[in-house]
């Protein structure tokens, strides 16, 4: 098995604050929130980054985003929110297990810098 922080969170060997789960997906609160709502939505399958996603992962990638929208609705983010996937070093990725950030609850700046 890959030595991966998010795989350990999904397996429950590292604790997390669960927001949502289903057969394909696990979502939990970011430990260092950058907005009043900051949730990480991850596939249970270990995919190192978006750059490592294969054609067989297309449905899972779509599912992550509809789950993000469901969570945003559930958290009352009617005024809007942002979903982000950081990829690789220049993209700011620090955990090598593909994840969608859901950020909301404040006005977010653009460009992100
Ligand atoms: P990235 O920088 O790879 O796009 O995002 C990784 C995210 O994982 C960061 O926002 C960081 O705060 C979060 N994170 C890192 N370690 C942990 C942890 O142990 N638990 C939780 N809940 N979030 C973590
Ligand atoms: Zn992993």
Sketch the major β-sheet.
Answer: 5 strands, antiparallel
What's the overall geometry? globular
Which molecules other than protein and nucleic acid are bound?
guanosine-5'-monophosphate, zinc ion
What name is given to the CATH topology? HIT family, subunit A
Overall CATH class? Alpha Beta
Instruction: From the alpha carbons, calculate the radius of gyration and give it in angstroms.
Output: 14 Å
Give the structural class.
alpha+beta
Order of SSEs: HEEEHEHE
Helical residue percent? Answer: 10-25%
Notes on the protein architecture:
This protein has 113 residues and is an alpha+beta fold. The chain has one domain: HIT family, subunit A, CATH 3.30.428.10. 25% of the residues lie in helices and 22% in strands. The chain contains 3 helices and 5 strands; from the N terminus they run αβββαβαβ. It has helices spanning 5-11, 58-74, 88-91; strands at 18-21, 25-29, 37-43, 81-84, 100-104. Strands 1-2-3-5-4 form a 5-stranded antiparallel β-sheet, with helices on one face. β1 and β2 (25-29) form a beta hairpin. It is globular and about 35 Å long. The N and C termini lie far apart (35 Å). The model has no long low-confidence stretch (mean pLDDT 97). It binds guanosine-5'-monophosphate (5GP) and zinc ion.
């Amino acid at each position: 098995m890959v030595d991966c922080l998010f795989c350990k969170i999904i397996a429950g060997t590292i604790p997390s604050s669960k927001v949502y789960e289903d057969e394909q997906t696990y979502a939990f609160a970011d430990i260092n929130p950058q907005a009043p709502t900051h949730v990480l939505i991850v596939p249970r399958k270990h995919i190192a980054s978006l750059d490592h996603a294969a054609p067989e992962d297309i449905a899972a990638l779509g599912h992550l985003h509809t789950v993000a929208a469901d969570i945003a609705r559930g958290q009352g983010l009617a005024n809007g929110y942002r979903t982000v996937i950081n990829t690789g070093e220049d993209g700011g990725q620090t955990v090598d297990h593909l994840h969608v950030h859901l950020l909301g609850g404040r006005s977010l700046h653009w460009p992100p810098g």
